[in-house]
Design goal:
This protein is an alpha/beta fold. The protein has helices spanning about 50-55, 70-80, 155-160, 180-190, 210-220; strands spanning about 1-5, 10-15, 20, 40-45, 65, 85, 90-95, 95-105, 120-125, 140-145, 165-170, 195, 225, 230-235. The protein contains 5 helices and 14 strands.
């Protein structure tokens, strides 16, 4: 599994021959990539805030997944033709990837007045094998936490049952977890690798990223914190 961080919460995830893009938003200081340069099979939307769906129209011909409320919005207002609405707890098979939608504690207003509700915000657990109660040491699983606060579901559901190997967690504070709560999340998730995201995009979420690294160490977690540069690609299998 290969991961590329395009800044903020925008990730390209390659699972076998299948390419996924989470939360297309390329107007951020971490990336020099134009969305027209990105070729993917599926787009995953965590929620409807502008800094997560801003460039979904650039992928209007690409199959797009999200809650029924968000996919309904991008179909009606952005012209995305091929959508799958799903909801929390569900798993869909997308080519070589199995994608499970999990809860994120956040808000989800679509900035269009009162015509649309974004439904419940979400995160995604992306794996190369179907989730089962039988642990599979050969699988590789990545958790994109979306925009969320610290929540016990990370410890009580996601870690023991979906078993992510790596997690991308928001650390920018103000709108999501800050470094301290994100570090607790990493400890609860018991992942091998943690990637910070959703920081240093605009002033309210500017942080000293070394604070996150220090906070993870303070929990006693052995998790490796990997701070990516924008547009950097990492082979996840080589870090497990």
């Amino acid at each position: 599994m290969e991961l590329t961080w395009f800044g903020h919460s925008t990730w390209h995830v390659s699972v076998g021959e299948t390419d996924l893009l989470v939360d297309p938003f390329f107007d951020n200081p971490h990336t020099d990539t134009d969305p027209s340069e990105v070729d993917v099979d599926h787009v995953l939307l965590t929620h409807g805030h502008a800094d997560h769906i801003a460039h979904v129209g650039e992928f209007a011909d690409t199959h797009t997944v999200g809650t029924p409320e968000v996919t309904g919005y991008v179909a009606d207002e952005v012209g995305v033709d091929d959508t799958t609405g799903m909801n929390l707890g569900g798993t869909v098979e997308l080519g070589d990837a199995f994608v499970t939608m999990v809860r994120a504690d956040h808000t989800n207003g679509l900035e269009t007045g009162y015509e649309y509700s974004g439904g419940t915000p979400a995160g995604y657990v992306i794996s190369d094998t179907k989730p089962t109660q039988v642990a599979d040491s050969d699988s590789t699983t990545f958790y994109h936490a979306g925009d969320t606060s610290l929540q016990t579901e990370m410890r009580e559901v996601i870690a023991p049952y979906l078993e992510p190997d790596a997690a991308a967690v928001p650390v920018g504070d103000h709108f999501t977890m800050g470094p301290m709560q994100a570090a607790v999340a990493v400890d609860w998730l018991d992942v091998d690798v943690a990637f910070p995201m959703h920081y240093d995009t605009f002033p309210p979420i500017e942080v000293d990223i070394e604070d996150f690294e220090r906070e993870v160490k303070a929990t006693g977690s052995p998790t490796d914190v990997h701070v990516l540069d924008g547009d950097e690609t990492v082979d996840l299998d080589g870090h497990l």
